[in-house]
Amino acid sequence: MNHRTPRILAACCGVALSAIALGDKTSLTIYSTAAPGAIPAEMYRPLPASRSAHGHGYRPFLQAPGYAVVRQDRSMTLTQGRSSVSFTDVASMIDPTTVSFASLTDPSGTRVIEQSYQFDLVSPDKLLERFVDQTIGVTIYHGDTTQSLSGRLLSSAPGQLVLSTDAGIRVVTGYSGLTLPTLPEGLITRPTLKWDVNAQRAGAHDVRVSYQTQGVTWWADYNLIFAPGDDENTGTLDVGAWVSILNQSGASYENATLKLVAGDVHRAPTPSHGMQERWAAAVPATVSGDAGFEEKSFFEYHLYTLGRRTSIADNSTRQIELFDSARRVPCEKILVYDGAGEMYWGSAGPALDQGFGVQTKPDVDVYLRFQNTKEAGLGIPLPAGRIRVSKLDKADDTLEFIGEDVIRHTPREEPVLVRMGKAFDVVGERRQVDFRVDRSRREIVETVEVKVRNRKNERVRVVVQERMSRWGTWEIQKSSVAGKKLDSTLMHFPLVLNPDEEGVVNYTVRYTW
């Protein structure tokens, strides 16, 4: 926030108050409600400055999916008895219902009787509304010449004025400047909090102001570098993580203590105000010292506290390293052929239609899997975020992008599965070989054949994934490859294929109801 020392003068009940902010201390705790990977940088682009629909004098924006708790400790001089305190350095996206003002010096003897939030900000339209029937000056350009005009303002509309001048009524458009005599009462240049304070003790008070503001969020980005192992199906990963902080709150936070909360914190729903946009430019973090984030469990969530202070400007994206890169984390490459894909049967009974689930696709999906364990070099809670993977091209020592995915909040000791894309040289096909329905015996018997071909120069392992979606009660009567039942609908059949080899899985499943 702006920490240039302001002098605030106010009067209430005939008592004047001066408050000077000395040695401000700001802390920021940010909560994110963004879906993992939902805020790519390309989402934000420059827009011409314009006033918001509420006339606050700020550019419109797409409200960031998150919020923050802002706390400021200040030193103020209070008079004894009732007085008025104005506090201007607040976010324009503040939730006024969350504001608290407390004296740390005399908490029991200082209390707030009333508080208000004023946001009727100065803007050209607001000013002109206040000067109807008053005399104003207008500057008009005619090519290289300038004309100054004075008259009584009768009405105003965007880009148009109606003036009563000595020469008569004049409609002015395309003017380039206005001269107004004073700043009307009731208009302010910045959003302002005001308190009616009753203090038993006069003099210097350390006070704490806290509030919640919209327009602030954070998310995690993971950058992985894949290095192949001794065979085509293993390798290692270098895992780096950054957090990006998007600030559109209408305030800057200078030299602030920063905390990030990872987890799904429930809040009461609020009405939607529509979609607007604001530019957010990515900038590197301001570093004082090199202490990074310290993680700890906090209630049912995880709290990440930055070990140094940082500055987060309004209308910007700040990027800070989440943890030191983990080197050579073991991983495995997994090829999965899911020939039928997801299937849904809308009826309450079994799927008796022979054509149900016979669709096929040739694509084989590629995944990388690694363990989030201390033994593997990690073992820390991983906040939800976008995960990008690159691989080194040794021909010119450049990193080339090979895939990306998103992960949910992942506790330690849990596996991480990254969907990379589709294999180019491994293809599959699936067909229904036999199908019989016996309504009297209440059974379906179906035979399926799956073929996978390896056109690579290396041996590969492929998992054939089959979905038993016709009914909930089923059993595999026979299969050409030993399979594993994963859950109530999934079977996995493993294949190991040499170069230019075709593998076949043939199985018969019996459904009963």
Rounded to the nearest angstrom, the radius of gyration is 33 Å
CATH fold annotation of the domain at 424-513:
Immunoglobulin-like
Mean pLDDT, as a whole number? 83
> Which regions contain 5 or more consecutive residues with pLDDT less than 50?
1-23, 41-61, 273-288
Alpha-beta content class: mainly beta
Number of helices: 1
Our measurement of the CA-to-CA distance between the termini, rounded to an integer number of angstroms, reads 67 Å
Q: What overall geometry do the principal axes of the alpha carbons give?
A: elongated
Q: What share of the residues lie within helices?
A: under 10%
Question: Main attributes?
Answer:
513 residues; SH3 type barrels; Immunoglobulin-like; 11-stranded mixed sheet; 1 helix; disordered N terminus
In short:
With 513 residues, the protein is mainly β. The chain contains one helix and 33 strands.
Can you describe this structure?
By secondary structure, the protein is mainly β. Among the domains are: 124-179, SH3 type barrels; 424-513, Immunoglobulin-like. 1% of the residues lie in helices and 56% in strands. It is built from 1 helix and 33 strands. Strands 15, 16, 18, 22, 23, 24, 25, 26, 29, 31 and 32 form an 11-stranded mixed β-sheet that branches. Strands 3, 4, 6, 14, 17, 19, 20 and 21 form an 8-stranded mixed β-sheet that branches. It starts with 6 loop residues before the first strand and ends with a strand.
